[in-house]
Write a structure and sequence with these properties.
about 575 residues; alpha/beta; 4-stranded mixed β-sheet; globular
Length: about 575
């Protein structure tokens, strides 16, 4: 039997399991800038900002038209001497920048998508700006800046993957999506100043600075910026909350299935990994040469070699989940992160902001595809005492505790305990870190001024990533990244929802939920829940409700309230991590 969590939450907290009564909500197109710029539905939209002048493209949209400015450079191309260095602001251009088409992805090999090979370019530090084409131009629009996920290795801001149509149909915000360096080129650290590291995070920070400086010229409100991210992108957004420079550049945070407290963010031995990669890329004297000498050699290695080298860092299939990750830097100029974020967060050393954080019900299903391959599963089971601690990132001495809690007397994975394995992954990587984030936040935050809202996404549909990636017909429920399908169009992977379909209505509600938070810092639909007091404990507060998105029938979705927290799970992982 599940109990509610055992910790005391001093918060203005909403746990919401949205199941959604389907309505067609009308969107109130809200309003932007009094700054002058040229605009016409008959000619390309043009904006002159601090960065320079740009000429975008008018898009007819799904329900409403919008202006798109694709591929605006925010940093100098990180090529040659700038490879494995902190980003440099773009020097600008003369005339109008052609923002009518997207630029290259950052170089990568996206193993999570079928048939993908190494693609993209090192010249990739560009962002996209989307704004509604019609609204009251006397007011500026709030801004959402989105950081994509992909285990720090893959994906991009391309509109075929993260299209703005659903958000533009809502009409209340400007959306900014961005590329940042990935994999070894984005997150390699030498442990000293030779390769300082966290370049992908510093790219994101520079993009946020670009938004602060330029977005008002596009009709955006630089004093109302919400930073959103999913999976590793959410972990990055969480880290920006703890960075002194970044935290001044945004005002609210949306964390979708990811935090900086997740095991795939735990620090690793970066100095050792640096020399391992030097070895894998064939560098001379990889084990004895000075790090500066190796860094010099790395600037000349073919970029695709770095992408392909990542595969050698896995112990087993996708294990560990993030072999390259943010690192703790020294206290040098331009350092992004100089302490373990778990310590910084637990001690409340950050600027408080309203937070919307949540998970997908079966986040773990999308991360455990070995169960769908007989050979991989057999190999994993034969080495489970070696592989599971690496996959879950815990000390091997806790293996018996973990197996007993999730599998009972079993010590291998098969069809009988497959769902328990999915739950194990989801708990470890997403659910437990989220609960820890919330619990520690409310110890320090003024939650009346900076509330925190929690959700669980549980909307079932034939649109899902597990079936896309594996090609199988068996359905495991809403999995990791499935909530993105209702926030963005992903035309490269899925057909957009037909207007007035249940999925389209779900998207309307999901976007409205996110936009309400981005615009107003609240979940307006659920303001009727009674606030928790500073004395209220986790089990008894009726405001702590999961909002679960679940289909009842082809035409209906339900908003369901629950205050269940698996306290046994919390105690298990808390004991393992502390």
């Amino acid at each position: 039997m599940r109990e509610s969590g055992s910790t005391t939450l001093k918060m203005n907290l909403f746990f919401f399991t949205l199941i959604l009564l389907v309505n067609v909500f009308t969107t109130n197109a809200e309003k932007s800038s009094n700054i002058s710029f040229k605009k016409s539905v008959l000619s390309p939209p043009e904006v002159c900002a601090e960065c320079g002048c740009v000429r975008g493209v008018f898009e007819s949209g799904r329900k409403k038209p919008y202006d798109a400015f694709y591929g605006i450079p925010y940093a100098e191309p990180p090529l040659g001497k700038l490879r494995l260095e902190n980003p440099v602001p773009h020097s600008g251009w003369s005339g109008y920048w052609d923002a009518s088409y997207p630029r290259d992805d950052c170089i990568q090999s996206n193993v999570s998508l079928p048939g993908q090979t190494t693609s993209g370019s090192e010249d990739c530090l560009y962002l996209n700006v989307y704004r509604p084409s019609t609204w009251n131009w006397k007011k500026k629009l709030p801004v959402v800046v989105y950081i994509h996920g992909g285990s720090f290795l893959s994906f991009s801001s391309k509109p075929e993957l993260f299209g703005p149509e659903y958000i533009m149909d809502n009409g209340e915000v400007i959306l900014v999506t961005l590329n940042y360096r990935l994999g070894i080129l984005g997150f390699l650290c030498s442990g000293d100043e030779a390769v300082k590291g966290n370049f992908g995070l510093k790219d994101q920070q520079m993009a946020l600075q670009w938004v602060a400086t330029n977005i008002e010229y596009f009709g955006g409100d630089s004093s109302s910026v919400t930073l959103a991210g999913q999976s590793s992108g959410a972990s990055c957004a969480h880290l920006h909350m703890m960075n002194s420079k970044s935290q001044a550049l945004f005002h609210r945070v949306i964390l979708m299935s990811g935090t900086a407290l997740a095991p795939f963010m735990y620090p690793i031995d970066n100095a050792a990994q640096f020399r391992t990669i030097a070895n894998f890329t064939g560098l001379k004297d990889f084990d004895t040469a000075a790090t500066y000498n190796l860094a010099y050699q790395m600037k000349k290695v073919d970029a695709a070699t770095f992408v392909e080298t990542v595969e050698l860092l896995y112990t087993f299939f996708a294990t560990p989940p993030a072999p390259i990750r943010p690192c703790i830097e020294g206290d040098w100029e331009g350092a992004f992160m100089t302490e373990d974020p778990r310590k910084v967060w637990a001690e409340g050393r950050y600027v408080q902001k309203p937070i919307l954080v949540g998970t997908v019900k079966n986040d773990g299903a999308s991360l455990s595809l070995i169960t769908l391959n007989e050979d991989l599963l057999d190999q994993f089971n034969r080495n489970i005492y070696d592989y599971l601690p690496i996959q879950m990132e815990f000390k091997p001495r806790y293996m018996s505790d973990v197996l007993k809690y999730y599998f009972g007397t079993r010590t291998t994975i098969d069809a009988s305990n497959q769902e328990a394995y999915f739950k194990m992954l989801g708990d470890r990587m997403f659910r437990y870190p989220m609960i820890t984030l919330v619990d520690q936040y409310v110890e320090h935050a003024d939650v009346e001024k900076n509330p925190i809202f929690i959700y669980e996404f549980d909307y079932e549909s034939s649109y899902n990533f597990v079936n896309l990636v594996t090609g199988i017909e068996e359905y495991f429920g809403p999995g990791h990244s499935d909530d993105l399908l209702y926030f963005f169009t992903m035309a490269l992977l899925f057909e957009p929802f037909e207007v007035d379909s249940p999925e389209s209505r779900m998207s309307d509600i999901w976007v409205r939920t996110m936009v309400n938070f981005a615009v107003r810092g609240e979940i307006k639909v659920w303001r009727t829940f009674r606030p928790c007091t500073t004395q209220t404990s986790f089990p008894s507060c009726d405001r702590q409700v999961f909002k679960r998105y679940t289909k009842l029938d082809p035409n209906q979705v339900l908003v369901e309230i629950s205050n269940e927290i698996d306290s046994g799970m919390v105690k298990l992982w808390s004991r393992i991590d502390n």
